[in-house]
């Protein structure tokens, strides 16, 4: 059963809502009305209730916007019980109601942003949507405008593993009030200018161990054969070749993301190595640090960009990524 | 409401460019998705070619059910299948391909030319024309009211306008008579439905409007704005009530055939029936074009380049058709037009024209040549196609794709030609588009065989002349004259006369004459 508030709005605009559903069926012939009904109950009702409590006078407009958007999302197969990625349902049900005051003022923008971001995060392999949701929920009381919501979402998306957002997210964080920016980074007691400078200087800030990325595609990983790695010309990522396919790997303290690339991009990439890096058998020395690798010595390959050392071997489908600093 | 469910436009895919570009990730991608956000969509101004593509994709995806991708582009090898007893080829194009029934009317809209829809009743000809009117900013009601419906009693006054009755009685001179002009004359998209049902005299009045862009009644002139024209006909081969006058037919720039409905798409029709939906009433405002925008698109299309190599192929193709050796005693008059003007017995003249390879000679397949107007239309549409595909230059494939639609009504096949007697070519008797495409392919094969891309002595002489005569000495002029004479001697030695050779010889004669005049002038100094 849906809440009385939602039921009363649907009843009062019954003809209009029905007409919208009919129109949507034309646009999406495969629109499953049962799935749409379930999403109304599961996804739309909670936020209608939240807005009804926060700003009852705006609940009609919010419902209309949410209803239209729900039709489109279910029509695309992105929401509802049959959705391929249930994260969008979770965002509508659990996260969107926490932005009720903002929803009341700009329902299309707020719901649109949250929905698109949920879909995007769901499509990035290696991203951690649940972490993004938790981060957004934590800062929700401090977000006072759509502009702030936009920026804080971008910062938290980066922190949730979308590594290639790093520079854009840092620029977005600069537009936030310092307290909100620091809250987004979970460092409320720090000074924003210092944090910003450190993040700019060191992509591996807060993660000295680096990370391992990729595994055999037959076991759900990314690579069909053990990958070969080169540093990209811009010095920020790695060009990877595996099973005649090419990729661009972007990694930092928060995550590693693989994009498709071309053979030319791989050919353009470099194999140079900073003098501070030295391989001795199965031990790699980075400055004063020595890291023993659990790999057979002899065929280990190294590639380094400005901040990161990538280690590969014909004996593994994974790439070890170590901070150079 | 900012959120518009049914009029959202797809991100029109454009032809991808192969050059690798530097990677730049945009954090705003986080919010790119199926949900349109109000402020963003409006902030980004789209280039007009993108808007045109969005209009195309909206029409094919939502408005007109035309799943016939007969304008095929390939990017690398494509999958092909031989089907049926006739072993016809089903091709799965490897690049973005288009439906001619939608694309060519849209290019007509962008270039403000004239498009004829042909095909059986109820295949969407009028609906398609109606959509073009809506794209120009008129309401459905306005377009419908302004549409001219051809009927056997249609008078010139019905078409253009009436003198005001009171003025007719009181006027002392023609100038005093005011004319109530028909509203359609001022439309930017003009639609004439079933134009082959209009009486011949009224067709002549229509010809003036179509050809010269003005209407005349009782010495009063109405200057029409630049417009795109759409005409429809169920049967353009004489099945209308009246024979279409040739000059009117010649004004049509492109002919598009409404193909049969594929019953596999009946569910789309069913939905429209059940929901009582009319696509023309749901055209998204984002794809409505202002007059200024169409002006700018027209300018941009004209600026699209045609490379020399492509132009040469068109020249070579067009050269094939006009020659008719037995029609004229003088070299310049050996054309099909000479025979046509004289009303000569074509069969007799053809019988005398022996010795050539009548299968190989493409000119033997047609009854006429290609007019200047047709060639201009061909180049305009090739440019429009390149523009639509986001390119700054016409590719040979652009020309190949638009050519059949432009020549559809212009190049008349000779059904008695030996080419059509071959069993494998029998289908080309009825499939004129397929025949024209085949004709162009055969012409290109011959162009390749002659290696004209690399070895074109007439082209070299022509380019030399195009540099100008300023400062060219008498000695050099004589050398060039000798080269021309030598080349003519080589080209005519023991060879049959084919269309391209005929045009080459005429070009060489022209160059010879220009150099001869120049030499005379030099000597008089």
Structural overview:
Chain B: This is AAA family ATPase. Chain B: InterPro entries: ATPase_AAA-3, CbbQ/NirQ/NorQ/GpvN, ChlI/MoxR_AAA_lid, P-loop_NTPase. Chain B: Residues 369-417 form the ChlI/MoxR AAA lid domain. Chain B: It comes from Janthinobacterium rivuli. The complex is a heterodimer of chains A (325) and B (525). Chain A has 13 helices and eleven strands. With 325 residues, chain A is α+β, with helices and mostly antiparallel strands. In chain A, helix 5 packs antiparallel against helix 7 and helix 9 (146-159) packs antiparallel against helix 10. The termini of chain A are far apart. The mean pLDDT of chain A is 90. By secondary structure, chain B is α/β, with parallel strands linked by helices. Chain B has helices at 38-43, 48-63, 100-111, 125-135, 140-146, 156-160, 165-170, 200-212, 246-251, 266-275, 291-303, 308-319, 336-342, 346-352, 372-388, 396-407, 418-421, 432-449, 457-466, 474-492, 499-524; strands at 79-83, 88-92, 114-118, 148-149, 161-163, 179-181, 189-193, 214-217, 220-223, 228-233, 254-257. In chain B, the strands form four sheets. Chain B has a five-stranded parallel beta sheet. In chain B, strands 1-2 form a two-stranded antiparallel ribbon. Chain B has a two-stranded antiparallel ribbon with strand order 5-6. In chain B, strand 1 (79-83) and strand 2 (88-92) form a beta hairpin. Chain B is globular, with a radius of gyration of 27 Å. Mean pLDDT of chain B is 85; it is low at 1-7, 12-20 and 40-44. Classes of the chains: A alpha+beta (325), B alpha/beta (525).
């Amino acid at each position: 059963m849906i809440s009385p508030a939602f039921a009363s709005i649907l009843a009062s605009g019954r003809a209009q809502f029905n007409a919208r559903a009919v129109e949507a069926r034309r646009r999406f012939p495969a629109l499953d009305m049962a799935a749409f009904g379930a999403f109304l109950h599961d996804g739309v009702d909670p936020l209608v209730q939240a807005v009804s409590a926060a700003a009852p006078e705006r609940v009609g407009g919010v419902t209309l916007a949410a209803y239209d958007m729900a039709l489109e999302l279910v029509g695309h197969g992105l929401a509802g019980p049959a959705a391929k990625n249930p994260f969008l349902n979770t965002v509508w049900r659990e996260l969107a109601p926490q932005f009720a005051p903002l929803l009341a003022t700009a329902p299309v923008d707020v719901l649109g942003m949250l929905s698109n971001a949920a879909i995007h995060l769901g499509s990035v392999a290696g991203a951690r949507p649940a972490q993004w949701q938790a981060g957004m929920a934590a800062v929700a009381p401090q977000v006072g405008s759509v502009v702030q919501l936009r920026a804080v979402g971008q910062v938290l998306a980066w922190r949730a593993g979308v590594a290639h957002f790093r520079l854009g997210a840092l620029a977005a964080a600069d537009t936030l009030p310092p307290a909100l920016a620091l809250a987004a980074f979970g460092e409320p007691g720090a000074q924003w200018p210092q944090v910003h400078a450190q993040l700019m200087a060191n992509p591996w800030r807060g993660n000295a161990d680096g990370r391992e990325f990729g595994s055999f595609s037959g076991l759900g990983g990314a690579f069909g054969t053990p990958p070969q790695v080169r540093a990209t010309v811009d010095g920020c990522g790695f060009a990877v070749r595996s099973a005649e396919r090419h990729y661009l790997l972007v990694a930092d303290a928060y995550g590693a993301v693989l994009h498709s690339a071309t053979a030319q991009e791989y050919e353009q990439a470099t194999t140079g190595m900073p003098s501070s890096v030295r391989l001795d058998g199965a031990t790699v020395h980075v400055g004063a640090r020595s890291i023993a690798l659990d790999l057979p010595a002899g065929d280990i390959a190294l590639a380094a960009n400005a901040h990161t050392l990538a280690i590969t071997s014909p004996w593994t489908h994974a790439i070890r990524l170590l901070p150079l600093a | 409401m900012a959120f518009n469910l049914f009029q959202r436009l797809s991100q029109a895919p454009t032809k991808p460019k192969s050059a690798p570009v530097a990677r730049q990730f945009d954090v705003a991608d986080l919010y790119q998705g199926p949900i349109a956000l109000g402020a963003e969509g409006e902030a980004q101004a789209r280039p007009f070619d993108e808007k045109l593509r969005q209009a195309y994709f909206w029409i094919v995806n939502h408005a007109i059910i035309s799943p016939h991708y007969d304008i095929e582009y390939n990017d690398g090898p494509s999958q092909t299948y031989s089907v049926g007893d006739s072993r016809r080829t089903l091709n799965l194009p490897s690049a973005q391909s288009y439906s001619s029934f939608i694309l060519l009317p849209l290019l007509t809209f962008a270039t403000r030319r004239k498009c004829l829809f042909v095909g059986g009743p109820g295949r969407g000809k009028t609906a398609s024309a109606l959509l073009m009117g809506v794209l120009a900013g008129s309401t459905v009601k306005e377009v419908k009211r302004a549409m001219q419906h051809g009927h056997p009693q249609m008078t010139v006054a019905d078409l253009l306008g009436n003198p005001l009755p009171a003025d007719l009685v009181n006027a002392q001179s023609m100038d005093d008579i005011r004319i109530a002009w028909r509203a359609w004359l001022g439309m930017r998209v003009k639609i004439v439905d079933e134009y082959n049902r209009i009486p011949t005299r009224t067709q002549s009045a229509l010809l003036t409007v179509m050809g010269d862009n003005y209407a005349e009644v009782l010495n009063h002139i109405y200057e029409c704005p630049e417009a795109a024209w759409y005409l429809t006909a169920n049967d353009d081969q004489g099945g209308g009530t009246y024979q279409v006058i040739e000059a009117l037919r010649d004004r049509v720039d492109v002919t598009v055939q409404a193909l049969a409905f594929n019953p596999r798409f009946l569910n789309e029709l069913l939905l429209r029936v059940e929901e009582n939906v009319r696509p023309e009433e749901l055209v998204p405002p984002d794809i409505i074009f202002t007059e200024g925008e169409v002006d700018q698109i027209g300018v941009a299309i004209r600026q699209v380049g045609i490379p020399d190599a492509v132009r040469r192929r068109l020249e070579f193709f067009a050269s094939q058709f006009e020659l008719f050796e037995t029609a004229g005693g003088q070299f310049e008059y050996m054309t099909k037009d000479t025979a046509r003007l004289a009303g000569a017995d074509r069969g007799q003249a053809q019988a005398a024209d022996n010795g050539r390879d009548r299968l190989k000679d493409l000119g033997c397949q047609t009854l006429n040549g290609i007019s200047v107007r047709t060639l201009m239309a061909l180049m305009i549409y090739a440019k429009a196609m390149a523009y639509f595909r986001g390119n700054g230059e016409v590719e040979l494939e652009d020309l190949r794709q638009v050519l059949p639609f432009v020549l559809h009504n212009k190049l008349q096949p000779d059904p008695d030609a030996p080419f059509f007697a071959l069993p494998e070519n029998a289908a080309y008797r009825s499939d004129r588009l397929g025949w024209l495409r085949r004709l162009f392919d055969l012409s290109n094969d011959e162009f390749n065989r002659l290696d004209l891309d690399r070895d074109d002595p007439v082209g070299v002489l022509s380019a030399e002349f195009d540099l100008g005569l300023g400062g060219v000495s008498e000695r050099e002029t004589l050398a060039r004259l000798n080269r021309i004479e030598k080349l003519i001697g080589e080209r005519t030695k023991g060879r049959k006369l084919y269309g391209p050779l005929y045009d080459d010889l005429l070009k060489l004669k022209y160059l010879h004459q220009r150099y001869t005049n120049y030499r005379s002038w030099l000597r008089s100094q």
